Amino acid sequence: MRQECRLLQGQKSVLSSSVHLFTVIVTFLLFSAAAFGQNAVVRVNQLGYVNSASKRAYLMSKGSESGATFSLNSGGSSVFSAPIGADLGAWGAYLHVYALDFDSVSTAGVYTIAVTGPTAATSPSFKIDTAANIYSKALANTLSYYQNSRDGANFIPSSLRTAAGHLNDQHAGVFHTPSFDSSDNITSGPTSTGATIDASGGWFDAGDYVKFVETHSYTVAVLGVGVRDFPNQMGSGSSQSDFTAEVRFGTDWLLKMWDDSSRTLYYQVGLGTGNSTIVSDHDIWRLPQADDTFGGSDSTTRFIRNRPALINTAGGAGAKISPNLAGRLSASFAICYQIFKNSDPAYASRCLLAAEHVFDLANTAPSGKLLTVAPFDFYGESEWRDDLELGATELYLALQPGNLPAGLPHSDPNFYLTAAANWAHAYIIGPGDAGDTLNLYDVTGLAHYELFRALGLAGNPSGLAVTQSTVLSDFQKELNNATTQGATNPFGFGFPWNQDDNASHGGGLSVMASEYKAMTGANTHAAHAERWLDNILGANAWGISFIVGDGTVFPD
Predict the structure, then answer these.
(1) pLDDT digits (tens, 9 = 90+) for 368-407
(2) Which of 107, 166, 286, 455 has its CA 20 to 30 A from that of 26?
(3) CA-closest candidate to residue 245, choices 154, 362, 122
């Protein structure tokens, strides 16, 4: 669930930008031509299907397949056959997309689907197995992604990483945010404050080497919940995909970007865009270890060698914090406390104190654009009430068990439960209610779930701005919107295919559908939980997995 990649970042010039764009377009067109040149194709989840779950593949055909049948074959033998399912609609040149359902097949093995009819087609091979066996490699792949994205001295050597990068970040100069024009080029600044901080560590952003609190805090929170709630899959109980060290690595960087002693926030390291006198991260192709000496004494590359740490635009010590950052940053720190309070109480206490201080400084009446990253267009978030709901809820969950460290501004967990309920209510009656589903830009898919759980721990008290029923109803509204969207395309995907972030939205929707069952015990969205994940792992019009390394066919 990491922030989305920008495929066209890093071009050295307008010419190389054009060449790279041309290459991407030609590659896509050739790939598309090959994919859509066949008269019939079968699309499957390339990772495989969980044996106890709903299972659907898709037959795409340019002509009618009326009367056709399909079979599942394993080891040269047919183990299941049935008529093809409903015609779900058209997609491009394929006038018919048929459902191929095989829920009853549960024996672990490797299978292919063969369609017999007016136009024959065969699927790629795929597995049916337990959830642990199907997705363990994907979790390990995700862990490898974060490990290989580590910045600074504490990198993990691998075939992709052979040296530390950005050691100069250990003494990064602090700068005010530059001004940008409508094309996101710098028009003035950045100007130095004269101060320096240790901004080393953290993960590269996806597709470049800039580091953002906006995306880090979301990532740390989501990974932290995974470690906390699924210790055998994502925590110390897993030998292949223990994310505990990565959660701490990400939290360590956030603690550097939040100076708790002076109550000062730094929100970004590095520049993604520049101008004729400033070479930026996105202007050049290179390995991260080249940056500390890149360009020698060339003044145009000064911010490549010595990357600026951008200070909170509202000011320095004690300044208000944009509510989106305050909410998700306090959530990350509160989750840190929940994870490490037993194994490292001193570290956990530091996180909890920081969480409370950050939350107290939230600007709860923002005007204009939120502070996300510079330039804003890179991650143009507009909703913030969800972030404060998440931050308050995680603080409640941190305080609720008791036995707290001394010196907290607020030690009564109900202080945060009340705040969480208020911000959930503000979201529900606000302009962004149910306008999105779980992803970087709207975290109610996690915040509502966590608040529902928190309200349950508190006995679902009366007198708060929301109840469990209120929260569940709004959560259901987001899922209903997704299923309505799914009815507009033959693959049932709950997010528009022609918008950005399909992978993160598909994954987020699958998480929400699973959370719904945990909240209600109902299987209402159980099939959606599987199919939305199928959609991003190959069961789509293109027959590609949207996550590199997961499945058999994915972008290089």
Answers:
(1) 999 999 999 999 999 999 999 999 999 999 999 999 999 9
(2) 286
(3) 154
